[in-house]
Write a structure and sequence with these properties.
The complex is a heterodimer of chains A (about 270) and B (about 220).
Chain A (H helix, E strand, L loop, with lengths): L6 E2 L2 H12 L9 E9 L5 E5 L2 E7 L3 E9 L1 E9 L11 E8 L4 E8 L5 E7 L9 E11 L3 E5 L2 E7 L4 E7 L1 E9 L5 E10 L4 E9 L3 E9 L23 H25 L1
Parallel strand pairs in A: 1-7, 2-8, 10-16
Antiparallel strand pairs in A: 2-5, 3-4, 3-6, 6-7, 8-9, 10-13, 11-12, 11-14, 14-15, 16-17
Chain B lengths: L1 H24 L5 E2 L2 H4 L21 E3 L11 E6 L4 E8 L16 E4 L10 E5 L3 E2 L3 E2 L13 E6 L4 E13 L5 H4 L7 E12 L4 E12 L2
Parallel strand pairs in B: 4-5, 6-11
Antiparallel strand pairs in B: 1-10, 3-4, 3-9, 5-6, 7-8, 9-10, 10-12, 11-12
The chains are: A mainly beta (about 270), B alpha+beta (about 220).
């Protein structure tokens, strides 16, 4: 496999970028987008350029950059081998006029396709609120591997996931033990690994690597998606009832009845 | 005739005066500043970089899964002025979406998804005010909390933090500022909650929550 073969993304791929980004609901900030970059091509340190400016230097495989607050707009992205002179030569990967709309939250992943070719794939990140007590977990297949099953605690939770797709679940917060198997088999390809799924956060798990370099998991966490409980219960017996006490209610009703009787007498005595 | 007039007057005076007098002479439902004023406020939003170029330095980190360090959980809450000294249980969320509380009314729940007391935001401690079989709960005296009362919270590392009540308020359950009571950002606050106000037998529930907010003693 020739990992340094330059792959220029076609206009069609750049179009897919724009589509994905604009599918993200706009958030409050009207000027910027939140972008993270994951390097998931084994054994190939790179430099990442945006609009001709170096964005990330000596970016090592298995590392995550960001989140970056980038001004909304169109970006030309290029990924060069890190040992090349700055911005010279032929990029390993490139994409032109990538639309980054305001309010988007996305992760751009440099990874291998199922066939082992380098690729740039943008994923839109779901930043909607997570119900109280829950955690969101998204699994993304970015490894040079066929379809896989993702298991949590031995149970298949995402069957038949293929590169470069994702599966999302909302689960009770806590630590799960996850592994990845070849789809439909018990042959473990990655893991098991303990994943701490914190309440009110989104944990994005990437399966990446290749048969030659080995397979690994990478994680990205988006915090601040929590919701509050809907209330606080607190008592069922009425022992500290703070309403008008019953004897006083009785006294008040008695007064009303007395007034009614006396009033009736007043009216009849006048006739 | 005069008797009848007097009867009407006395009767009406009783009918109106008893509830009004009760309302006027009962202890106030609030103490100190309104709860909404003393809860953590949202930190200011980061200023927008506008059209500035991307920052040259970018944070990168190894993306392999890592364990998240946990702060020591609180284990006990004590309020000497109310004679309260109760163990704390870490609690989450009930299937109905409300905060889960310990079944035992002598124990108090700490909302484990929120901050631990002393971290940024609002640490919530809540308990049942009463139970048909068990009687009054540990937090029943909450409704008489006074500004300045000292609250002590011990954690599993053996550290005790000191807090001082700044506010008590009776808030209708439908009107609770839940997002602020359970805030995870802003100044550290301790929020103690139980039920209060009139009991609604048809719902087997109280109408209100008693909310007490305390600030750290420095």
């Amino acid at each position: 496999m020739d990992k340094t073969r330059p792959i220029a993304l076609t206009a069609g791929t750049a179009g897919a970028f724009a589509l994905l980004f604009s599918a993200t609901p706009a958030l409050a900030d009207s000027h910027t987008a939140t972008v993270s970059v994951l390097h998931a091509i084994p054994d190939t340190p790179v430099d990442v350029y945006a609009n001709g400016e170096r964005l990330i230097d000596d970016f090592a495989p298995g590392t995550l950059a960001g989140p970056l607050e980038l001004p909304a707009g169109d970006y030309d992205l290029a990924v060069f081998p890190a040992d090349a002179a700055d911005a010279s030569g032929t990029p390993l990967l490139s994409a032109t006029d990538v639309a980054v709309p305001a309010g988007a939250n996305a992760t751009v992943v440099a990874h291998l396709t199922e066939a082992g070719e380098p690729a740039l794939t943008p994923f839109a990140n779901d930043t909607s609120a997570v119900p109280a007590g829950q955690a969101r977990v998204t699994v993304r297949h970015t490894a040079a591997a066929p379809a896989v099953d993702v298991r949590a605690g031995g149970e298949v939770v995402a069957p038949g996931l293929t590169n470069p797709n994702e599966a999302t679940l909302e689960v009770p917060a806590g630590t799960i033990t996850a592994d990845v198997t070849l789809a439909g088999t018990d042959t473990v390809a990655i893991g098991p690994a303990d994943l701490a799924l914190e309440e009110g956060t989104s944990t994005i798990v990437y399966a990446w690597g290749s048969g030659d370099a080995g397979y690994e998991l990478a994680t990205q966490t988006i915090t601040g998606l929590h919701s509050s409980p809907s209330g606080v219960p607190g008592g069922s017996a009425g022992l500290v009832d703070d309403g008008l006490p019953l004897p006083l209610v009785g006294l008040s009703v008695l007064g009303l009845a007395g007034a009614a009787v006396a009033g009736r007498r007043l009216v009849t005595s006048r006739v | 005739m005069r008797n009848a007039v007097a009867g009407v007057a006395v009767g009406l005076a009783l009918a109106v005066g008893v509830p009004v007098g009760w309302e006027l002479t009962r202890p106030p439902a609030t103490a100190g500043a309104p709860v909404a004023q003393v809860l953590p406020t949202d930190p200011p939003a980061p200023s927008s970089p506008g059209t500035a170029a991307p920052a040259p330095a970018v944070d990168t980190r190894a993306a392999a899964p890592t364990a998240v360090p946990q702060a020591p959980a609180p284990t006990r809450v004590a309020v000497p002025a109310w004679g309260v000294d109760a163990p704390l249980d870490p609690m989450g969320v009930s299937p109905d979406g409300q905060m889960a509380l310990p079944e035992d009314v002598d124990r108090v729940g700490w909302y484990r998804f929120g901050p631990v007391p002393g971290e940024a935001g609002s640490a919530v401690l809540a308990g049942h005010v009463d139970d048909r079989e068990q009687g009054l709960g540990a937090l029943a005296p909450l409704r008489d909390a006074a500004v300045g009362d000292e609250v002590l919270v011990a954690d599993e590392a053996g550290t005790t933090s000191r807090w001082q009540v700044t506010s008590r308020e009776l808030i209708t359950k439908q009107e609770l500022p839940l997002d602020r009571l359970f805030a995870r950002e802003g100044e550290p606050r301790l929020v103690l909650m139980t039920c209060g106000g009139p009991f609604l037998p048809e719902y087997r529930s109280y109408r209100d929550n008693v909310v007490v907010v305390a600030e750290p003693v420095r």
